[in-house]
Amino acid sequence: MTHSSSYQARAVGANGLIEYTDIDHGTWTLLHKRQRILTEQCAHPLISVALRALSLPDRHVPQCAEVSERLNAMTGWSMAPVPALIDFSTFYGMLAGRCFPAASFIRRREELDYLKEPDIFHEIFGHSPILAIPELAEFSERIGELGVQCPAEWHPWIARLHWFTIEFGLMRHQGERRALGAGLISSASELRYSVRSSQPVVRPFNLLDCLRTPYRIDILQPLYFELEDLRSLGALSNAEIIRSMHQAREMGSHEPLYTPKKRQSVEEPC
Questions:
Q1: What is the chain written as a DSSP string?
Q2: In the CATH hierarchy, which fold is given to the domain comprising 22-251?
Q3: pTM of structure
Q4: Is 64:73 a contact under the CB 8 Å cutoff?
Q5: Cα–Cα distances in angstroms (integers) from residue 267 to residues 2, 10, 80, 173, in the given order
Q6: pLDDT (tens digit, 9 = 90+) per residue, 75-94?
Q7: Which residues of the chain carry a pLDDT beneath 70?
């Protein structure tokens, strides 16, 4: 990744655990209580079912090891703490090995509603239900495999696919727009905005369109792609994704629906 973080990673102790403060646990409690209510209202029911199956603690920051134990039994995935910002190669390599890299810090109280970089609440509350759903767990692994197999210059296009599906994807449920991606599930402000606001553009998921669409990591998204069902992702072959990446690169990116930032990459894994 190319930008710096205002947070510091929490060190893993000799016992393999991270020591969180009472303030940290209080922040987790506030976030968990609020997001469980919002996910029932705004997220796809698959997310709510997965969260109930995971039984995440509501009064303390969970350790990656305890979440991994449940995930491994469900889909064969695990989570491991990493620094807040890691490079594409590390990120994709871990996904390919069915291990999700989890930033170890938790956000400050003044950033409860929205955080532009991943923290432990985003990683665990947002991504663990994704990884507990077999179809999405498999697709996350395939994203990692593509990142490992493709040259580094293709990573931004793979990142777009990951961003608009696993991170900020929507999916229909009984004719209604519902949140699916981890970036939405873990954000109070964007979870509501993504499904209730008329402001963002919502397009049916199309692989080539998705790969040609730029994004920024530090704003509410102006555009979302919406899946009809999970078969839309399962039907994508790696060969089709690679062909579409070549085509997207040749055709160029769509004009962004936001003001681009200068001198900073806006496309990075989360």
A1: --S--SS-PPPB-TTS-B---HHHHHHHHHHHHHHHHHHHHHB-HHHHHHHHHHT--SSSPPPHHHHHHHHHHHHS-EEEEE-S---HHHHHHHHHTTEEEEE-----GGGSS--SS--HHIIIIIIHHHHHSHHHHHHHHHHHHHHHHS-GGGHHHHHHHHIIIIIT-EEEETTEEEE-SHHHHT-HHHHHHHHH-SSSEEEE--HHHHHT----SSS--SEEEEESSTHHHHT--HHHHHHHHHHHHHH-PPPPSSPPPSSS------
A2: Phenylalanine Hydroxylase (1.10.800)
A3: 0.93
A4: no
A5: 10, 25, 23, 29
A6: 999 999 997 678 999 999 99
A7: 1-4, 84, 262-270
| Spans of all domains in the chain | 22-251
Tens-place pLDDT, residues 117-162: 899 999 999 999 999 999 999 999 999 999 999 999 999 999 999 9
For residue 109, the one-letter residue type is: R
| CA 100 from centroid of its chain's CA atoms | 10
Query: Residue 74: which of 32, 120, 17, 130 has the closest Cα?
Result: 130
Distances (CA, A) of 104 to 64, 95, 160, 169: 9, 17, 24, 24
The DSSP bridge pattern shows strands 201-204 and 223-227 to be parallel
Token couple for 58: 């509501």
Q: What angle do CA 122, 212, 210 make, to 5 degrees?
A: 50
